[in-house]
Amino acid sequence: MKCSGLSFSLSGVENKVMQYRASGASAEETARYALLSVISAVTAATEALKQYPGLAVVFSGGVSGNSLLRERCREFDAAFAEPRFSLGQRLRHRASHMVSITETYLSNNNPE
Question: Are 66 and 35 in contact (CB under 8 A)?
Answer without folding.
Answer: yes
